[in-house]
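Email to the structure team, subject: Sporulation integral membrane protein YlbJ model.

Hi all, the expression group asked for a predicted structure before they design truncation constructs. Nothing fancy, just the tokens so they can compare against earlier work. One-line instruction: predict Sporulation integral membrane protein YlbJ, return tokens.
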Amino acid sequence: MRMFLKKWSVLLLLIGLTLLFGLMLAFPDSSWNAAVRGLAIWWDVLFPSLFPFFVISEMMLGFGIVHFIGMLLDPLMKPLFRIPGSGGFVAAMSLASGYPVSAKLTSKLREQQLITREEGERLVAFTTTSDPIFLIGAVSVGFFHNPQLAGTLAAAHYGSSFIVGLLMRFHAPRATPSPAAAAARSGFSFRLAVKAMHEARLSDDRTFGEQLKQSVVSALQLMTVVGGLVVVFSVLLEVLSASGLMTQLYELIRQVLSILHLPPALAEPLVGGGFEVTLGAKSAAAVPASVPLAFKAAAAAFILSWAGLSVHAQIASILNGTGLRYFPFLLARLVHGVLASLMVLFLWPLTGPDTEVFQSFEDSSIFQSGWSGLPSAILLTLQALSLLLILSVIIRIIQHLRNKRKAWKWK
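Reply from the structure team: attached below.
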């Protein structure tokens, strides 16, 4: 059965590539413009926001800093999400730099046997999120021209991601935890964290120069793959639109939205966002004014959480060879998208632009995209790690007091 499906998948892939090649020949100008636009997105937005984090994360793994942070975060991550504390490092890095950083870091943890397959699937499922610089600076300010919308979008996007993490803890309930997670059950211990960092550093016998060289090479290779996929999907969506093939899909989605009593005008951004998140979010903001802003924001939240097939392809290429399955990630994206859009509609009367709850987002100068947004992203990473560490300490103190009370009762 597996061989049969594999043969059919290869055949369908060949048919799809042939169709794409034919459409590119039929619409050369559209293909060229789409490729240039995709390349610009890669260089202006993705490269500065992802490349430094890829290099830094590789270096931190080599020096054992991830092991150090993982030991300290274990009291928080293990009870909530059933993943080792090193998953907290992945969550913080992904929060600051966005997709597909979590997949890259999860694959590295998997290679070093710090997590099991099931823990890796849980981790990448809920840490694949948009970065705040894109969500606030590009979507809320750049596309919607409404900075106060950022608070509602952020609350819905990251809040629903947290819920997905709680749901994913029930994924593979009988799976055996990783040796690293089992060994870290002693709780929050700075001494054990330093010991874990020291042992990890000793096990990596590369010099600083070798680590830096390999980190840069690995990051450049991955960025090349990411850029290529962005260009491919940009061209694919453009030639499908130019050929008129997307019209039928638009009509189908309009009918589905009508059945659900949702504005049919959201069909185009939802279809576009199904392929590429930037184009979909921009189209959601450009929907006619007759559609209420709440529904436009809900569509944008779904698109940001689904992340687009372009990001899916990037993550699938990164996870290839790690043993992590794509289906749990796909299911998590769908759940995340639905939850995020519902949370926007639920929060809208409480936190929408008319309520002036998020007036602080009026000053959006710190949320700049491209190279100028790198310092803000690094600062956000440090803030996220600090918050996670504080929560881990609080949970450890609560556990210690509870255990102490039980021991006192036994006496």
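The chain has one domain: 45-399. The two ends are 62 Å apart (CA to CA). Ping us if the truncation boundaries need rechecking.
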